[in-house]
Amino acid sequence: MTKKQNNKNHFINISKIQNILPHRYPFLLVDRVLRLEEGKSILTIKNVTYNEPFFNGHFPENKIMPGVLIIEAMAQSGGILVYHSVPDPKDWFMMLSKITNAKFRKPVIPGDQIRFYVDIVRMRKKFCEIKGKAVVDGDIVAESEVIASLLHREEMNGRE
What we know:
Blueprint (H helix, E strand, L loop, with lengths): L2 H5 L6 H7 L11 E6 L3 E7 L19 H17 L8 E13 L8 E11 L3 E10 L2 E14 H4 L4
Antiparallel strand pairs: 1-2, 2-4, 3-6, 4-5, 5-6
């Protein structure tokens, strides 16, 4: 197996994800990375459990995961991808700037496992555009395009 082929199957667990993303419970929405191709694409999963805190207030009689959190999980997946696609990743801070073409096709309920397929559409020094889809049991449940600003940590001094 060549080094490039090996690059496609990164299994990144939750401990390593916490070293990459600044999010913590209850806003860390990516459980594992199954596949990553630096500068190109990522496949992540989110296991949706009955114990998720948002189910207490979002349609409590008919538990449905909020669509905005599905998009946030997609953006977090993109953040992991970008982290592995820029030089000196710890020097950069990524902030969500724009969401376009968001579509919600089917509800996500407790017991579902969402697979996020995210691709880099365009990457520049100060921003990144990603496109993603969320899939449960082979069905697309949501999709969106997201633009994130990339800020150098030095630019963030005094703003954090």
